Amino acid sequence: MTATPEDMIHSLSLWHGPIEIAPLVGGITNRNYLVGDAGRRFVVRLGEDIPVHHISRANEVAASRAAHAAGLSPAVIHHEPGILVLDYIDAKPLSAEDVSHPAFMERVVSLVRSCHRDVARYFRGPAAIFWVFHVLRDYAAVLNAGDSRHKPLLPSFLEIAERLEREAGPFEIAFGHNDLLAANFLDDGKRLWLIDWDYAGFNTPLFDLGGLASNNEFSEAQEEAMLEAYFEAGVSDDLRRRYQAMKCASLLRETMWSMVSEIHSDIEFDYSSYTAENLRRFESAWQDFRNS
Fold first, then answer.
1. Fewer CB under 10 Å: which end of the chain, C or N?
2. For this chain's UniProt record, which GO biological process terms are given (predicted)?
């Protein structure tokens, strides 16, 4: 008989006595639980490698450890295949409205800059490269092989990706988080934390910035403020266009991620609606880029 998530958590050897388990909402590549043990609380993330999404749990553990050493993320308490136990941070996840608010944006951008500057110093072992244009090409192959209902869109997507890759360079390389959803930022009332390192790897910083803006639906003025805060300087026309290209690539990746999840994920989530929303946003950004 297949073990339940609760059975898997109970079987871990690190507990000191009876534990309390409660599911956490959110998480569309993992199943997450809050566990109480001897007066302490922990977050337990259950999830195997997901090759179609380029997710390696060994890489996630290494990135989580490095991010903690850099002072950005909670400590890794325990891990074994398919299970990651993290220290619990008593904090609330940010919303898109929080991230785009001037009071938060400077702090969020500072945290992202710290990720790009500091995490690689502490990363140990083989590191991943998250190159969005490779991801897009691979997603197209997965969708084609899986006879996705979105197959007619793939030739156009690949053509667009090639153009974006040409226009987004030259590229600076840094260690990126690569999944800057609002809920991956936590506010404990004193500081912000950055969590969930499933997709972490070396990339161009503009991908994270494009993802931050697109995931949280920044206005044009908010995007300009974000770029000025990150680079601590005015924004040139060249930088602005390269950034816009990476923002389009980020939106296309999120769209195709959802398309792949429609046919490969067993997590209960409305991927069809998520696909439709991200496709709408991608098409709007692509139209703006073409007309700029």
1. N
2. phosphatidylethanolamine biosynthetic process
What residue spans define the domains of the chain?
Answer: 5-87, 92-291
CA angle 255/27/251 to nearest 5° reads 20
Instruction: Look at residues 278, 274, 245, 53 and name the one whose alpha carbon lies nearest to residue 165.
Output: 245
Residue 21's CB: how many other CB atoms inside 10 A? 14
CATH level 2 (architecture), domain 5-87 = 2-Layer Sandwich (3.30)
- Rounded to 10 degrees, what is the CA torsion of 221, 276, 250, 212? 40
| Alpha-carbon span 43 to 111, nearest angstrom | 22
Please report where in the chains the tokens 């004193």 appear, as a residue. 190
Q: How far apart are CA 94 and CA 193, in angstroms?
A: 10
Angle between helices 237-264 and 132-145 (to 10 degrees): 30
Q: What burial class does residue 12 get, using C-beta atoms within 10 Å of its C-beta: 0-12 exposed, 13-18 middle, 19+ buried?
A: middle
> pLDDT higher for 2 or 81?
81
Alpha-carbon distance of 277 to 261, in angstroms, equals: 14
The pair of three-digit structure tokens given for residue 188, joined into one six-digit string: 């404990």
CATH code of the domain occupying 92-291: 3.90.1200.10
3-state secondary structure 163-208: HHHHHCCCCCCEEECCCCCHHHEEECCCCEEECCCCCCEEECHHHH
pTM: 0.95
* Six-digit token string for 203: 């990339």
152 membership: H or E segment, kind and range: none
Residues facing 78 on adjacent strands: 85
Determine the Cα–Cα distance for residues 231 and 242; give it in Å rounded to an integer.
Answer: 14
**Cα end-to-end distance, the chain, whole Å:** 58
